Amino acid sequence: MAYFQNMKKKTELLKDKKDILILAIESSCDETSVALVRNGREVVSNVISSQIDIHKEYGGVVPEIASRKHVEVINYIVDKALSEANINLNELDAVAVTYGPGLVGALLVGVAMAKGLAFGLKVPLIGVHHIEGHISSNYIHNPDLEPPFLCLVVSGGHTMLVCVEDYCKYRLMGQTLDDAAGEAFDKIARVIGLGYPGGPAIERYAKDGDPTKYDYPRVNIKGKPYDFSFSGLKTAVINHVHNMKQAGEKVNINDIAASFQQAVVDVLVEKSINCANELGIDKLAIAGGVSANSLLKDQMNSLAGQHGIKLYTPSIILSTDNAAMIGSAAYYRLLRGEISDLSLNAIPYLSLSSLN
Length: 356
Ligand code: KG4
Ligand code: ZN
Fold this sequence. Notes:
By secondary structure, the chain is an alpha/beta fold.
């Protein structure tokens, strides 16, 4: 309790400080990442240790293995982020951490580390929502970006259109009713034998395929123009591959990858632009692992341009999970005096509405 009251006072003083340096930790899934971020926009270091090679063998992330690997490397990654930045622990102004949504065991590793550091260093602790982190990745890569803007968040676990009304103020415009876009990429990649993670592999194979070869479904939900559904598309592709195999036909992986990718991208682009137009917003950002996809970026950019909308994208390294985006989100929370106490816990199904 004494810690929290003291940190509240310290946070008030920080608001007048010229430079605020935050150490941020992200461990919600299969990346252990630690970053040092100055004033919410400048990345001083961003170390990412990926477990992808370990999970590849199993065709997807194994939660128990993920937690154990985070435990093994977290101390080392903290040290590496500090030494790459040439920063000392006592120079930190605050410690931030993703506390949800994500895999509970994986999140707990980051949360425990952050609490220990914040308490030991006597600096404020800031719990950050993973999706708020993804949205904030755009602040880093685009120094001129200010709210309000619309953001399409497309990752392995989420697909949603969020209106960023102000810093730390969000309105959910629509979301997937079943699979996330990245999840669909991962599942289709597995079915056509491309392994995990599916998104980058599908993108690679699609380059040599015909996106118009198969007309896979683009789903619109009656009365919910900004909600998404990818399970029908996923089933259509799986059945198609299955039927071809049964009929003894040659399965052209490139054409399937290209046609599937095109169907996902068409839906994401059309709904995002329609939503921005309805809101009268001329700034659109994309975030999350799937935002690394070149077709999505190119097609979104071209349609946005036709509608007088400016597109903002994070760099590839900031698209997938990383701690720099958590440090950026934390900075704007800190400026509002929104810090966490030491009872901060991992919340695997943390909702976006808890953000406002
Ligand atoms: O944001 P992220 O790193 O983790 C989550 O919060 O889920 O997103 C991972 C997802 C995976 O489903 C992966 O297949 C997808 O992002 N992804 C891509 C690409 N790169 C990663 N999907 C399509 N095209 C890509 N280039
Ligand atoms: Zn993510």
